[in-house]
Amino acid sequence: MKKHNLIDGQWVAGASATPNVNPSNTADVIDxxxxxxxxxxxxxxxxxxxxxxxxxxxxxxxxxDILDAIGTEILARKEELxxxxxxxxxxxxxxxxxxxxxxxxxxxxxAQEAVRARGELVPSVRPGIEVEITREPVGVVGMITPxxxxxxxxxxxxxxxxxxxxxxxxKPADLVPGCAWALAEIISRSALPPGxxxxxxxxxxxxxxxxxxxxDVDALSFTGSVVTGRNIARAAxxxxxxxxxxxxxxxxxxxxxxxxxxxxVNVVLQSAFxxxxxxxxxxxxxxxxxxxxxxxxxxxxARMAKLTIDDALKAGTDIGPVVxxxxxxxxxxxxxxxxxxxxxxxxxxxxxxxxxxxxxxxxTLFTETTPTMRINREEVFGPVAxxxxxxxxxxxxxxxxxxxxxxxxxxxxxxLKHAAHFKRHAQVGMVMVNLPTAGVDYHVPFGGRKGxxxxxxxxxxxxxxxxTAVKTxxxxxx
Length: 478
Ligand code: UN1
Prior knowledge:
Blueprint: E1 5-7, E2 10-12, E3 16-21, E4 29-35, H1 38-56, H2 60-76, H3 78-89, H4 93-115, E5 120-123, E6 130-137, E7 140-144, H5 152-163, E8 167-171, H6 178-188, E9 197-199, H7 204-213, E10 219-223, H8 226-238, E11 242-246, E12 251-255, H9 261-273, E13 283-289, H10 290-305, H11 325-341, E14 344-347, E15 351-352, E16 360-361, E17 364-367, E18 384-390, H12 393-401, E19 408-412, H13 416-425, E20 430-433, E21 453-454, H14 464-467, E22 468-475
Parallel strand pairs: 7-8, 7-10, 8-9, 10-11, 12-13, 12-19, 13-18, 17-18, 19-20
Antiparallel strand pairs: 1-2, 3-4, 5-6, 6-22, 11-21, 14-17, 15-16
Bound molecules: 2-aminohexanedioic acid.
2-aminohexanedioic acid (UN1) binds next to loops.
């Protein structure tokens, strides 16, 4: 069955369709997914606009019940949805199932947030007057989501949008629309009125552009590359949209002399290579003090040699394929760049052949790299990490902060003093102490600083900053 767009409660065939191909096995085509044209995107926006006045007045109980039911179904079907995720995106099946479960929990969390809505009543500086501070929905929220978290990222944008009374038009990544479609199908069977939620699949240059430039979209939440994010911010300013942008990272992971070696190695394996390194939260700059450097590199490369890189759906696979040929080319190109810059390749660096035709790439580690090399400045978005050797913690901190990005930063240490100092001085939105930089909780704020993020935080109670508009009302009770 071909997969259509969901516009105003109806499944509508796209102007064209595109195959969704399994990156572990290019002979496996999951299905054909609709490609909307600009007209369809505008129809979805118009449907959301028309549905908004009524949905904005829905009760918090109505929203809570709908979100909770969606969350329940996602959790009940997490194996199936996680398998689809792994098949279309290439992260391993346990990672896919974990992500599907995360999406279910997010809906359940925001079901409860809906009923926790509250305002403030404060005295005025003038006699007899009362001031109320309340939150209202923003309106129509446009969403553009990336391929690397095909269900969790749509969930963490859609659930708060609906919880606070907004209408949604979402364009999932062109490359990986399967999970977003499955989520839309679940939502389409909920008690949500038609038009409140719309799915338009297709190209960024067509559907994305229609959403970004439409005067009928009030707010825009985007996760993706820095280049696209910057263009979106510029275009959104034309129509004064509220924007929330989550972009890249070049996240540092410090390993200090006093680190527990096993913990440090596990943290770096997880952060740099799992999910094929295709996470904006991945650690790609491993900053290691000289006392532990050689022992750490030896232990890490020994563990890397034992990783199983294979079909994402196979039991026992640690790391699945890269998502598509262009990402594979980018990974290969950065290996060449790092070598040319003088980095020493100590593991991986090459495409791998498996029994199925997929985009397999060996987890890659460079040592002897310096902070100014391109490999330490630009996001690769693959299973590629580089080690920077430093004298001490102070130099490690300076190197960690010497970047245009600021999403997250990790430190492996047993020193309370260094961990406490790092928590305060890392110029990022999220700090992990003896934990991987990637793999975040669903109930707390997510986001970064500098080139990584722009606008209010996502997730947890902080999501309300983006998905609501604050109103201040002055009352003279005469
Ligand atoms: C995670 O590491 O658990 O696109 C989430 C990304 C991030 C999400 C990471 N926005 O990789």
